[in-house]
């Protein structure tokens, strides 16, 4: 069940858009890890910069989107700064949108 929930959570994170860049957080390379234990999802992610003014918006977007998944009732978002995000983390799709 956890593998299915992890897959659903990963897919759902494509729907969380960085409002400043208009690109989802997965293609931006902000998501480092997704775990689901029982009904609790834990997301390890970063932001493009530690002082990102959209910190709460993105974090709440992750929580809100994951809470829509049947079987997930709790979400923890752990923001980390190591490894630091770089543009090299972005998918080719994200790079195309920004070029």
Give helix and strand order, one letter per element, not per position.
HEEEEHEH
Question: What does the largest sheet look like?
Answer: 3 strands, mixed
> Spans of 5+ residues with little confidence (pLDDT < 50)?
none
Fraction of residues in β-strands: 15-25%
What is the terminal separation in angstroms? 39 Å
Q: Radius of gyration from the CA trace? A: 13 Å
Number of strands: 5
Trace the largest sheet across and list its strands: 3-4-5
Helical segment tally? 3
Rounded average pLDDT = 94
Q: How would the global form be characterised?
A: globular
Helix content: 25-40%
Which structural class is indicated by helix and strand composition?
A: alpha+beta
Task: Please summarize what this structure is.
By secondary structure, the protein is an alpha+beta fold. It has helices at residues 2-13, 55-66, 92-98; strands spanning 17-18, 23-24, 31-37, 40-45, 74-79.
Description:
- The chain has 99 residues and is α+β, with helices and mostly antiparallel strands.
- Helices cover 31% and strands 23% of the residues.
- The chain is built from 3 helices and 5 strands.
- The strands form 2 sheets. The chain has a 3-stranded mixed sheet. A two-stranded antiparallel sheet has the order 1-2.
- Strand 3 and strand 4 form a beta hairpin.
- The longest helix has 12 residues, at 2-13.
- It is globular, with a radius of gyration of 13 Å.
- The model has no long low-confidence stretch (mean pLDDT 94).
